[in-house]
């Protein structure tokens, strides 16, 4: 599943490729990709230009020149690509925005979980309630230590599960949760409220740094992620915990193990990341 670094990579690609382009035609091979009335969606985007591409958590916001914004969530495998306008739809192409410059923006999704919804610009939060509920972005400015202390103190959930909760902190998924817990030497099942102030300081720094580093590497390619240019992310070569079950811990040499925490596969080092009891 694309996490924040992957979605930010897609955002940057779309910003370079489609801002200023006008939507002259919409084909909808898979109308279910649209939440709400798909015909209204088509009417609402036709003849508008892509004006600005922004992101909140794992949501993309494609702002149009006509007071509408498309809110897009890629979920598991959603992908955008920009193609010459005479390109035939792929097997899993769900929507094609024909552009005025002989190109087309394709949205492809092998798992068909991704969704788009047309909102009124400025009212995205009201019209997409899950957007309004998102926690702060994992950045130095927005994810403050005092906020971390407040939210962690309130929860007895395992820290791994807690980190995946988008209403607490936006943008962290399974990959980066495993990474930051390994870096912080925190056992994934530790109840959030049991983390010490020092552990929270370390965890916060690791979250901010890791998300930034992964974004700088254009994200991680696991399964089919690629950016709008069809390039794959490079961060999988930098991963220290995720996907390393059975391999040696890069810090202490112990064998990394995998368990389920809240139904999610979780890889960690049983020596460096000791469970608090
Ligand atoms: Zn270790």
Automatic annotation (TrEMBL):
Its cofactor is Zn(2+). Residues 2-114 form the Formamidopyrimidine-DNA glycosylase catalytic domain. Residues 240-274 form the FPG-type domain. Binds 1 zinc ion per subunit. Its EC number is 3.2.2.23, 4.2.99.18. The active site is at residues 2-3, 58, 264. DNA binds at residues 92, 111. PROSITE patterns: FPG_CAT, ZF_FPG_1, ZF_FPG_2. GO terms for biological process: base-excision repair. It catalyses: Hydrolysis of DNA containing ring-opened 7-methylguanine residues, releasing 2,6-diamino-4-hydroxy-5-(N-methyl)formamidopyrimidine; 2'-deoxyribonucleotide-(2'-deoxyribose 5'-phosphate)-2'-deoxyribonucleotide-DNA = a 3'-end 2'-deoxyribonucleotide-(2,3-dehydro-2,3-deoxyribose 5'-phosphate)-DNA + a 5'-end 5'-phospho-2'-deoxyribonucleoside-DNA + H(+). GO terms for molecular function: 8-oxo-7,8-dihydroguanine DNA N-glycosylase activity; class I DNA-(apurinic or apyrimidinic site) endonuclease activity; damaged DNA binding; double-stranded DNA binding; zinc ion binding. Belongs to the FPG family. PANTHER family: FORMAMIDOPYRIMIDINE-DNA GLYCOSYLASE. Monomer. This is Formamidopyrimidine-DNA glycosylase. It comes from Leuconostoc litchii. The gene is mutM.
